[in-house]
Amino acid sequence: MSKLEQDFQKASKEFQRLQADLTSTIEARQKLDYQQSESDLVLKELTKLKPENTVYKLIGPGLMPQDAAEAKQTVEKRLDFIKKEIERIEAQLKTIGEKAEKKKTEIIKLQTEIQKSQPPATAA
After folding, report:
1. Would residue 60 be called left, alpha or beta, if left means φ above 0 and alpha means ψ between -120 and 50 degrees?
2. CB 33 within 8 A of CB 87
3. Span between the terminal Cα atoms of the chain, in Å
4. Confidence (pLDDT) at 124
5. Is the Cα torsion angle 78, 56, 58, 48 positive or negative in sign?
6. Contacts of 85 (CB under 8 A, 6+ apart)
7. Which stretches of the chain are DSSP H helices?
8. How confident is the model at residue 115 (pLDDT cuts 50, 70, 90)?
9. How many whole angstroms separate alpha carbon 31 and alpha carbon 36?
10. pLDDT at residue number 114
11. PANTHER family in the record, alphabetically (predicted)?
12. Could you give the 3-state DSSP secondary structure of residue 48?
C-alpha cells in the first residue's frame, strides 16, 4: 500500500470520527433544546401562581412543599445554565464542522493524487 493510500485511509478514519462527534454533539444540542423548552413551560406556569398556591417538589419518592419564589429562582438558574450549555455546544458544532470540512478537502485532494498516480487502464 502506497503512502498516499495510507494517508487516504487515515484521513477517512479521522473524517468518520469527526462525523460521529458531530452526530453526538447534535444529539446533545437537541436534548438541551428539549430541556430549555420544558423549563420555559415550567417557568411560565410558575409566574401564573398566586401567593396562596402551593408548589411541590419531587424529592425521592415523595412530594415536598416548596416556596414558589424559590422554585421560580431554581428554574431561572436552570435556564441560565442551559443557555450557557447551548452556547458551548454551538461553538463545538462550529469547530467540528470546520475540522470536518478541512478533512473532506484533504480526502478529495488525496483521492485525486491517488488517481493520478495509478497507470491508465489499457483497452483489451
Report:
1. left
2. no
3. 26
4. 55
5. negative
6. 32
7. 3-47, 68-117
8. confident
9. 9
10. 86
11. PREFOLDIN SUBUNIT 6 (PTHR21431:SF0)
12. coil
User: 56 near 67, Cβ under 8 Å?
Assistant: no
Residue 104's identity, in one-letter code, is K
State what percent of residues in the chain have pLDDT above 70.
97
pLDDT tens, residue by residue, 94-110: 999 999 999 999 999 99
Three-state secondary structure call for residue 8: helix
Q: Any bridge partners for residue 3, and if so which?
A: none
Q: What is the pTM of this model?
A: 0.80
- Cα(109)–Cα(3) distance, integer angstroms: 14
Please identify which residue in the block is written with the cell numbers 406556569: 45
> Closest Cα partner for 82 from 42, 45, 34?
34
